[in-house]
Amino acid sequence: MAFDAYGELKPSGVPAWYRRPSDSFTRTCPFSPAAKNEDYLATNLYPLAKHQDAAIGRFQTAYVGYVAEEEYRLQGSSGGMVTWVATELLRQGLIDGVAHVIATKEPQKEGRYFRYRISRTVAQVQEGAKSRYYPIELSEILQTIREVPGRYAVVGVPCFIKAVQLLRNEDPLFRERIRFTLGLFCGHMKSARFVESFAWQMKVPVHQIEQVEFRHKDPNRPANWYNAQLTLRDGSTINRDWWHLKDGDWGAGFYMNSACNFCDDVVAETADISFGDAWVEPYSSDGKGTNVVVVRSTVVEELVENAIQEGRLQLETVDQKFVEQTQAAGFRQRREGLAYRLTWPRKGVQPCKRVKPDAETVAKHRKTIYRMRSFISAGSHRVFSFARLLQKPELYFKWARMVAAVYHGLAYHQGKFSEMRKRFGELKG
């Protein structure tokens, strides 16, 4: 896997490799039309699940809350649940290692800021806390799992967990060694250019960046006030709220991978347990962070319930409607928006999704938003690449300000021009 001109990871090989058909790859690629879908996988993985829901799939129990034990909550972007479950699996001897994403030690030398690693101690797992909106891939750790016997847990976004489950179906070795999957709710994947855009807008040289924190936590501010922090080689830091970044509106879809436009899984439906942010009040205003959690594995459910009884986790049970409400925007994009996008003419591989193509029931206003989001996703790659080639950031800034302002007016103010003009002015600084 290698970065392409847009800062996205793509397969890299000789031309003959690209032309060689592969039945195994067809069955294991999570976006392949011939691969088993999330419903099929979840039915076989969790046949005795207590609940089944069209939005969040099969599950045992759903919760909202946070880790009360130690510093997990403060160390994570949200309520600390992902790191806590991973370390608890290690502590209880249920696994020998956790495959998760960590920050690279020497990003300028390695050519990337984050990568997967297998951690085998609690301290190592805790290094993977926080959100990583950056392209990563599984090849290195899957090779390690193949070569080194043991019991592993894998943490990943929905398409990564689905890929792991498809691989476990295909290869008995992975079925035996990968014992647990921990899923992350997902809006979309960003390209590596997102970090470069941070640097441009904060006026720091990209080659001086040593660490990237996409969601710097401040307990005194609402959790949904995202703040980006860059740490430079000299140890200094610089911060900027996402609201003041020209491409900081997550919903607009800047740098979105094109595959994300054809995903219908928001909550990692094939994972033993999955985690998201509780984006509803009063939780979204709590700067300490709050998780919404969906448990599907009976083993993990017992682990979580025992910790609740011991006072180590502060969790309350919720229903599927609450979970869906916390991710309402994601479900609109991945269900209604996907249904509409499936009606657009396209060349090449034709997606086969659980959502049926539909251009009739989607409101005209929503269609305009989905069209604009798609335009921004594709355009941001091209315009940034052109500005990067010429080393003229202002070219990208002007374009991003304009499209972000238009999107803001369409998405939040029914297309009012006055609101677009106001937002355009706010993004000038």
From TrEMBL:
Q: What is the top-level taxon of the source organism?
A: Bacteria
Q: Where is the Coenzyme F420 hydrogenase/dehydrogenase beta subunit N-terminal domain?
A: 63-142
Pfam families hit by this protein:
FrhB_FdhB_C, FrhB_FdhB_N
Q: Locate the Coenzyme F420 hydrogenase/dehydrogenase beta subunit C-terminal domain: which residues?
A: 151-320
A GO MF label: oxidoreductase activity, acting on CH or CH2 groups, with an iron-sulfur protein as acceptor
This chain belongs to which protein, by name? Coenzyme F420 hydrogenase
